[in-house]
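=== Structure Prediction Worksheet ===
Name of assembly: unnamed complex
Input type: mixed (protein and possibly other molecules)
Chain count: two
Listed entries:
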Amino acid sequence: MLKLHHHPMSAASRFVRIVLAEYGERVELFEEKPWERRREFLALNPAATLPVMIEDAGPPIVGGIVSGEYLDETRGAFQRDKRLMPDKPIERVEARRLTEWFLGKMDGEVTRYLVKERVFKLDMAPAEGGGPPDASAIRAARANLKHHLRYVAWLAESRDWLAGPRLSYADLAAAASLSILDYLGEIAWENEPAAKEWYMRLKSRPSFRPLLTERVRGVAPAGHYAELDF
Amino acid sequence: MLKLHHHPMSAASRFVRIVLAEYGERVELFEEKPWERRREFLALNPAATLPVMIEDAGPPIVGGIVSGEYLDETRGAFQRDKRLMPDKPIERVEARRLTEWFLGKMDGEVTRYLVKERVFKLDMAPAEGGGPPDASAIRAARANLKHHLRYVAWLAESRDWLAGPRLSYADLAAAASLSILDYLGEIAWENEPAAKEWYMRLKSRPSFRPLLTERVRGVAPAGHYAELDF
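=== Predicted Assembly ===
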C-alpha cells in the first residue's frame, strides 16, 4: 500500500490525498511536523518539505508536483476519461502551470504564511520558530489572498474547470489550498461568487470528504467549513 | 520554430535552452527583463517569471519545469537512449525531485538573490527595486550556496550523474544554476572537487557552448568561466 507523510495544513499534502482518493487508491497516512526536522524524515527528504509518498519499498516520492506526475504516469494514464490530466501535451501545459501556481506561488505568498502564523506557531517550541503570530506577515498574506481568489474566480468564469473543459490537477491543487484557508476562515467567498460556485462543486466530491471531517488540534474550523451548501 | 522569452541570468531559462540544444531544436530567443513587467509579457505569464516558451501559435508554456515536461513529452520520449529523463516512472521521480531542487529551492535560496543583488539591480530603476546591493542578502545567499555545492558534490560522488546512471534533467538544472553563479565568480570549486569534475563534464557538452560565450552587460564573467579545463 502507498504511504504518505503529510500534514493536514499542507496544501501539497491535501492535493496528493485528493488525487489518491479520486483514483480510488488506499493510503496509509503519517502525520509529520516538518519544523521538528526528525532525522528519519530528513533522510527521506533533505528539503524537509511535505508530502513524501512511498510506494512499496521504493525511493521517496517528494513533493506535490512530483507525486502528481508519478500518479499520472502510474494511475492516471490508464483511467481514460477519469484521468486528472488533459490528454494532449499542449493541454497538460496549462494544468501543470496552474498546479504550480497554487502549490508553489500561492503557497509561498499566502497559504504557508497563514498556516505558520496561525497554526504551526501554536505547536512550535521557541527554538523551532514558535512565538506570537507576526501580524505583518498575516496582513501581507491576506492582501495577497485577495488577488489569488480573484484569479480563481476569473478562471472559473472563463472556463468549465480551472484549466479547461475537464476537471484536472489544477482544480485539485487550487481546492487543496483554498480548503486550508477556508478552515481558517480566511476566505471572503461573498466577494467572489464564481470562485464559490466552483469550490462548492469540488467540495461535494467524495474525494474531499475525509478532509472536511478532519480537525487540527487547537484550531477550530470556520462554521461553514464542512457544509456542502455554504 | 520555438520561441523562448528568457534572461541569461535566469537558471530556469538556461535549463530550457540546454534541453533544447541537447535535442537539436532551434529556438528564437527574446530577452526579457522580468522586473519591467511589460504588459505583453504579463499577458503571456501573469506570474512574470521566466522562461516562457511558445510553439507555433500555441498557448504560453510557462516556467522551466513545465517546459521541461512538455519537451520530454514531445521530444524526449522519442529519443531512445538520448532521452534526458529516465525511462521508468519511479526513476523519473528522482530526476524531477532534483530538477525542482535546483530550479526551485536553490534558486530561491541562492541564485535568484545573488543575481538580483549583483546584476539586476544595476539595471533597475529605483521604483523597480533598484539601488545599492543588500549586503546581508548576499551574505545569506553565499552561506546557502556552500550547502548546495556540497549537495551537488555528494550526489556526484555517489552516482555517475546526479539522478542516477544517466545524464538527466537533474544535471542540466544543476549546471544551469551553477553556470550563472560561476559567471559571477561565486563558486569555490577547489572546496568540492567532485562537483568540479562533474561540472567540467557538463560544460564540455556542445549544448553548453552558447551560454559560455554570452556576456551580460555591465558584469564581466569570472576569468575561468568559459574555460573547459579550469
